[in-house]
Records
---
Amino acid sequence: MRQIDALKSPRFTQVSTFARLPLCEDLSEVKAVFLGIPFDDATTYRPGARFGPMGIRQGSRLLRPYNQFLDVYPFDTLNMCDAGDINVIPGYIDDTFKIIEEELNKIHNIVPFIAGGDHSITLPILRAMHKKYGKVNLVHLDSHYDFWDSYWGKKYTHGTWLRRALEEGLLNEVVQMGIRGSLYSRDDVEDSKRLRIKSFTIRDLKYKLEEVKKELPSGKTYVSIDIDVVDPAFAPGTGTPEVGGLTSFEILEIVRSFNFNIVGFDVVEVSPPYDTSEITTMLAANILYEGASVLAKKM
Ligand SMILES: [Mn+2]
């Protein structure tokens, strides 16, 4: 396995790739890739998620080869590599969405572990997933519903991607977890029922997590994690923080419990300019590590 030397290396200051994995060259034996999508022009509040991939790579330096809780060597099992960043076009959402979809269409039988970017990028990713697999399930961890119809009359933002994905018929079962914070209206709560989304609030996660876990889908599932599902005390570096969220331990445990077939996995809305002491980027890197570990465990 070609990456072992790099993983065992004590050169923790090297930041060029995720977890000091090799850059992807030959993809023939690769089962998973790390991929950055540095786009944040669909953000509505604090910007900076375009620096997410860079920050998450930096926050991943201390990741080591063996996951003791899942008893797996994720990077070895998946022969994982870092595919670099997709060349997005700042300021141009439509063009960027096309590029993201095209780039993802190029990888076959490889599970992408994606660092955003704001949450709008999940829509073109889901379009690519649909092209590959047909309708997939979505497990969405977020403090926000993200199914609003529009912001300032605009249909493509980081708060509307889920509504578009549903309208485009990309999704099968949708499970949301961690919803909280003040809302625009009571209609938001009703809309989750109308849209046939299983929405679980932060209270559901804190008070009856085992019951929520039973509602998770089986089969081909895409995982999208807005880092703001985690409390700002544990993940301050994000665009639209909501207090009263998950701890870093809780989110890692939730990811470890996933028992479906992961077809793709993103961690979005990590904004390093608002981070402190790399708390958020280290957490995001570890969430991706646990996701890769869950996938590797099933191999
Ligand atoms: Mn959010």
---
Amino acid sequence: MDGIRGWVFDLDGTLTIAQHDFPAIRRELGIPANDDILTYIAALPEPGRSDLSARLDAIEHRLAEAVQPALGAAQLIRFLRDRGDRLGILTRNLRSVAFSSLRALGVADCFNEEDVLGRKDALPKPDPDGILQLTQRWQLNRAEVVMVGDFRFDLEAGRAAGCRTCLILPQNSWPDLADWHMPDCRSVLNSLSPGLGSDRTAG
Ligand SMILES: [Mg+2]
């Protein structure tokens, strides 16, 4: 991953342990099982759209209180920040919820507020809008930017933006979409700086 100077991270399931039970959220909000939650809400007429959107926000704030850091996530963020790389978050969550999670991980100070893009700041993944916003602001070449995430939408957004992609997941579920595959953030750190990502410093 030499040459990468800009990192766009997905949040839930990538820097934190996945805690969103999407079927349960759909049930709580009365959204059909096979519908994409954000797409479904966006298509509703008012006032239903605002009402359901507010209820989703409340669920996300509730979930953010119980956030758990993913293996090596905080160390990886600190390492990248200390070497001067650009760091962003692209999440389908709210920016305020994203910052609660980043505070819980102890790395909120590593991110500029405008580089944390929630669902009201960019079109939702797999649209590349958020990555393109960040790449432009950072004035980096797309080949110097990687989208890091645990789901197909993260990789598709990265591909659509023309940047590199890294899947963080135990199994390589989308080999055609990922330039790199790592089981966890600790492995990414270890590949960048062997020794730093050891068990001794994990947590
Ligand atoms: Mg995710």
